[in-house]
Design brief:
Length: about 375
């Protein structure tokens, strides 16, 4: 009996190695970038037997992966740069000791998690154009980040203390979200942060700005709902710290202060703001009060193929609907910016015309004096 069991134990790993499925590159560019298209997992176990091609840069597009899990990150053999774009990937759980750059662009991402182990290899994290409304506190385990771009999502609330561990953070982009509150503790210092983009949000103020970033050199603030009191406070600090403020507003519903629109009084009821932010808890340090719902569990409970296909179609519909709404919002925003730009150009043309006329009059006067002499 024992020899039979021993033989079985030897056979099992061999059989797993035989059925390991390597995904092929759809095309390869000259710089050895591997493009992968049309990936779709039929069952939750597929991710455990998947192997990606050996390539330093992999771009996955036009695919449906309900959960890009830590096992799939493990399957990236020698990949340093991974891009997920134009896909349906609503959930990502990051874990990798090899990746230097991760980009998640327009994948319908709703849930992003980081396994609770320090990672000093990931240098760049870019998550753009997704219905992502919250980031997990476990993002602090990405201690090697120098570029963190979370722009053009649906974030509502950010705690900057989560980035305290990122000693090399140079760029933090939170622009084009729905952020109404950024929490900052008085002791926070992001010592190397030089670029801070928070334009196109719903912010009234940012506490301890710019003290929390002593090396800050460039900032974008336009298209928010700033308190006039806050704008007056930080204007001198920005000037003293030699911070370059990019962008300016010219037409405001209320007041214009130093190139920023600002508003007197409280525009919003604080209790209403709090109610807009559902408190979320995440897997952190081995304690989980509310983990991300794993897509493979949903599929595991669904043995009927038609129901599974229905769920995939519904996911696709939800993602397309979100993209449509964001495009409508972006269209309105761009139209307003276009109108503002045209009006500013008209004012510039008028000013230049006036200056040119004055210069011509001055030249005529000088020429007349010369003739008379």
């Amino acid at each position: 009996m024992r020899p039979a069991i021993f033989t079985l134990l030897l056979v099992i790993p061999c059989s797993l190695a035989i059925i390991k499925k390597t995904i092929e590159c759809s095309r390869v560019q000259r710089n050895s970038t591997c493009f992968i298209e049309g990936v779709s997992f039929e069952t939750p176990t597929d991710e455990y037997v998947t192997a990606f091609p050996t390539s330093s840069h992999i771009i996955i597009e036009s695919s449906e992966i309900l959960h890009f899990s830590s096992q799939l990150f493990d399957a990236l053999a020698e990949t340093a740069f991974l891009t997920l774009k134009g896909c349906l990937i609503p959930t990502v759980t990051f874990r990798s000791d090899e990746l230097h750059s991760l980009r998640i662009d327009n994948t319908g991402l709703r849930e992003f998690a980081v396994t609770p182990f320090e990672n000093r290899n990931l240098n760049t994290l870019i998550i753009n154009g997704n219905p992502l409304s919250a980031i997990p506190p476990t993002v602090r385990y990405l201690t090697g980040l120098s570029i963190l771009d979370l722009s053009n999502n649906q974030l509502e609330h950010v705690k900057l203390d989560w980035f305290r561990t990122m000693e090399n953070l140079l760029v933090l982009d939170l622009s084009a979200n729905r952020i109404v509150r950024i929490d900052i503790v008085p002791s926070l210092r992001l010592g190397r942060l030089k670029n801070f983009w928070i334009n196109h949000n719903r912010l009234r103020q940012v506490a301890f700005f710019p003290d929390f970033a002593p090396a800050l050199r460039r900032v974008r603030l336009v298209e928010n709902r700033w308190s006039c009191e806050w704008v007056a406070q930080v204007r001198q600090s920005i000037w003293t710290s030699a911070i370059h403020v990019y962008g300016a507003e010219y037409l405001c519903a209320d007041k214009l202060d130093g190139g920023l629109c600002c508003y007197e009084g409280d525009l919003y009821n604080s209790s209403e703001i709090e109610s807009e932010h559902e408190e979320r808890t995440y897997f952190d340090g081995g304690i989980a009060s509310e983990q991300f719902p794993r897509a493979e569990r949903m599929l595991a409970r669904d043995d009927n193929r038609e129901e599974r296909q229905h769920m995939l179609l519904k996911q696709s519909y939800d993602v397309l609907e979100q993209k449509y709404r964001r495009l409508v919002e972006e269209k309105e925003r761009l139209e307003q910016r276009f109108v503002n730009t045209v009006r500013e150009l008209e004012r510039t043309v008028k000013r230049l015309t006036t200056e040119l006329t004055e210069a011509q009059d001055m030249i005529r006067t000088q020429n007349l004096k010369i003739v008379l002499q």
